[in-house]
Give the backbone structure.
Amino acid sequence: MQQVRPKKFLGQHFLADAAIAERIVDALSFDGYKRVIEIGPGMGVLTSLLAERAEEKLTVIEIDKESVAYLKAHFPDNKVNVVEEDFLQMDLMPLLGSPVAVIGNFPYNISTQIVFRVYDNRDSIVEVVGMFQKEVAQRICAVPGSRVYGIQSVLMQSCYDCEYLFTVEPKVFNPPPKVQSGVIRLKLNRTKNTISSEADFRKVIKTAFNQRRKTLRNALRGLLQPTHHADAMPFKEKRAEELSWQQFDELTQWVVGG
């Protein structure tokens, strides 16, 4: 079968460097899970390595029909389960009955949505190794006070230990993207996952970062009840990028409870 054509509208940039593929797959710990889901396998450069290492049958999720046909032709169905679906839209429940890792060279144009979908399913997705646009990878792993620290940083760090692993140059892709890529690893930390009010936590974070130049006293004014006194707000003189996820949780509890 002929090679798959990378499609711009799907954000496809196929990894063409076997050594980089090895480094990405080597980053999986296989600690606490037996199943692996690969998102956007393309022509299977990671798939070929994963199929040999996963203890249980590998699941790959691919939306491109041409890639699906290529994968089914090249990988035996007793090793690889090819699912022709959109990861962002599909029902994940049948795949998440037990702990699982997610891995992939994620398309840049949907990588942020992938991150949020992982967060929403964090009880089952215990590890993620992914390649993102470098700026997105850095944002997820950024520390408070960094200029790229934001909503994704706080949410993901509230439940995962986030580690930036290495940078990947454009030349190892077909076609080469115009930016660098970064590979990160997220490992679920169940002692972190103690947010008191999930919906309120997300609302406070989003509101704070939407007005990140303002102090929290002013940025969150619209969330306060009449009984609230802004002067009593914890961290009221700080700005959103200065707070850790633990401090955001404390702030959320104050906003909710007054």
Summary: The radius of gyration is 20 Å. The domain at 198-257 is CATH 1.10.8.100 (Helicase, Ruva Protein; domain 3). The chain has two domains: 8-188, 198-257. The chain is about 30% helix and 20% strand.
